[in-house]
Amino acid sequence: MLNLKMRDVNEIKKTNLILIRHGQSLWNLENRFTGWKDIDLTEAGKQEARKAAMKIKHESVNIAFTSNLIRAQHTLQIIKEVCGWNDLPVIKNEALNERSYGALEGKNKAETANQFGEEQVHIWRRSFDVAPPEGESLKDTYDRVIPYFQQSILPYLLEEKEVLIVAHGNSLRAMVMFLESLTPAQILKREIGTGIPLCYSLSKEKLVSFLSV
């Protein structure tokens, strides 16, 4: 639990949080399960990062967070260069990594459906709490992303810092679920597009509520 003085909490008006999924990766293009495999961006992915940067260039970002994977880090680096944020502090942590697909990583999604059946692969991909072999479910991903958000990211938001997070489809889906108080059924219907900024203005009441969830 964070040790916050009531005076500090009461002074908070609102803050901004920007979430961006990395640009298209090489394995996105090849329709492979990527997960924790360290795969870089395609040229199209680099262009998506540049377009994302142009959409948030007017923001006054104070700190950025990203995962330990190159596709997210490269996206963030491009954003920093385009926006001229050369001195922007960056914190990297595997808690923001993509969901692990375990034994499926590197496999073509269509070929995997042929091997295990479309219904089984659909369950692995789109259920909330069923994990693929040796991998993580979305619930598992949520259970590592949200404690990290509360412990390491929320303190900056409570200090009225503007925070940018560049991560992955499922780690960001977990965060969206938490921020918007969505049910498992609701979050499974949400798609997080590559290179599309999601911007939140969070009130002090909403931020403080995150402390006890």
Roughly how many Å is the radius of gyration?
17 Å
Give me the strand/helix succession.
Answer: HEHHEHEHHHEHHEH
Strand content: 5-15%
CATH architecture type: 3-Layer(aba) Sandwich
Structure description:
It is a single chain. The chain is α/β, with parallel strands linked by helices. It has a single domain, classed as Phosphoglycerate mutase-like (Rossmann fold), CATH 3.40.50. The protein is 46% helix and 12% strand. Helix 3 crosses helix 4 and helix 5 crosses helix 6.
Would you summarize the structure shown here?
The protein has 213 residues and is α/β, with parallel strands linked by helices.
What are the salient characteristics of this protein?
alpha/beta; Rossmann fold
Q: What's the layout of helices and strands?
A:
Blueprint: H1 6-11, E1 14-21, H2 26-29, H3 43-56, E2 63-66, H4 70-83, E3 90-92, H5 109-116, H6 118-126, H7 138-158, E4 163-167, H8 169-179, H9 184-188, E5 198-203, H10 204-209
